[in-house]
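Model it.
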Amino acid sequence: MTSGPLLVSLKGTTTLHFSGGPEYLGIIWDALDGVAELAETADDRGVNRHQHIEYFPGDEYRSPDSIPLVIVADWEDG
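Modeled.
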């Protein structure tokens, strides 16, 4: 188990890797759940639902070594 703030990184060119303490990894799960819920309940699809996960100076929840990540829900109406 790792500790510390959320670190978003790439392993090679195709694998997204998350590390950090459990309380910080929750940022990813909350973003995934939130974006999916908003996309499922949206009445208009003019803008894809999305959330940014990125470090800003002074942020104690995300590592300054993290790469920016945008979680997007862009599936078609079904």
